[in-house]
Amino acid sequence: MPRHATPRRYLMCPPAHFKVTYSINPWMDPAKPVDVPLAIAQWEDLAGRYRALGHTVEELSPRPDLPDMVFAANGATVIDGRVLGARFAYRERAAEAEAHLDWFHSHGFAEIHEPAHINEGEGDFAVTASWILAGRGFRASPLSHGEAQEFFGRPVVGLDLVDPRYYHLDTALAVLDDAADSVMYYPDAFSAGSQAVLRRLFPDALIASEADAVALGLNAVSDGLHVLLPQAAVGLFEPLRSRGFEPIGMDLGELLKGGGSVKCCTQELR
Ligand code: ARG
After folding, report:
1. Other CB atoms closer than 10 Å to residue 98's CB: what's the count?
2. Is the CB of 147 under 6 A from ligand 1?
3. pLDDT(32) > 80
4. Which stretch of DSSP H or E encloses residue 152?
5. How many CA atoms lie within 13 A of 222 on its CB side?
6. In the chain, what is the straight-line distance between the N-terminal and C-terminal CA atoms, in Å?
7. Would the N or C end of the chain have less CB density within 10 A of its end CB?
8. Measured between alpha carbons, how far is 270 from 267 in angstroms, rounded to an integer?
9. List of residues 6+ apart from 222 with CB closer than 8 A
10. How far is the C-alpha of 8 from the C-alpha of 11, rounded, in Å?
11. How would residue 2 be classed by pLDDT, with cut points 50, 70 and 90?
12. What is the separation of C-alpha 178 from the centre of its chain, rounded to a whole number of angstroms?
């Protein structure tokens, strides 16, 4: 199947103040040191790669008191220029929501909704051609799914996450082609019922192995052709190529210490 890339606009936040000082997911160990210059170099590699592919990267100013702010995907969800703000599950990240809202207000976004219910932006919302897939179980409130459906006017499909290593939907599922309902995912991250829903909606999905999921290989960003993903997820490269995609392996090893990789660092401004 011939694939083609479409130009994207991304919002990212440099990891100038990245730290692991608390633990809100099983990947985070405050006892393990973080190499900030290395995190910055890895992040710049990702931002530079997007730009080299013809995409636009907008930058949010990092704040010293918000060490997880590099995970910009969590700050909002934007579809058709409409912004659904975030409301974080843990107080450590709560102020990030405001920083994102300020950015949208000062960058010409007119339709901005401050949410009543907990949602961590694209951490738990994934946008395909037909649906918004919405994770729940660890972070987003199930009530945020109805709120998103009402605001965007798109059908929201709730999916139950059951393994704490895959605490956000974007650690267990990636959209490969948002014009055609094409995804890859790791079934065991989901409840039995949600696995059945995924099989029904995406019978041709690329199914990831445990080894690739644990390398956070599903924390990937696709422009319709190029799929940027953690380079350690070696088992995904060939299946992606055979489906017509061009996988691009990235090393975001330092940011993995916070429990995130490519997708977590990238919020798409649709
Ligand atoms: N330390 C962050 C947290 O646990 C990582 C967030 C990763 N972001 C993501 N979109 N999965 O909230």
Report:
1. 13
2. no
3. yes
4. helix 142-152
5. 29
6. 24
7. N
8. 9
9. 174, 175, 176, 177, 178, 228, 245
10. 10
11. confident
12. 14
Is residue 144 lining ligand 1, measured as CB closer than 6 Å? no
Strand partners, 77: 84
- Domains by residue range for the chain, with CATH: 9-268 (3.75.10.10)
24: Cβ below 6 Å to ligand 1?
yes
In the chain, what is the greatest distance between 2 CA atoms, to the nearest angstrom? 47
Query: Which residue has its alpha carbon closest to ligand 1 atom 9?
Result: 264
Query: What is the predicted pLDDT for the residue at 112?
Result: 98
Q: Among 88, 161, 264, which is best to mutate for testing ligand 1, by the most ligand atoms less than 8 A from CB?
A: 264
Mean pLDDT of 68-91: 98
Which residues are annotated as catalytic? 168, 264
Residue 255 Cα to ligand 1 middle (Å): 10
* CA angle at 77 for the pair 43 and 193, rounded to the nearest 5°: 100
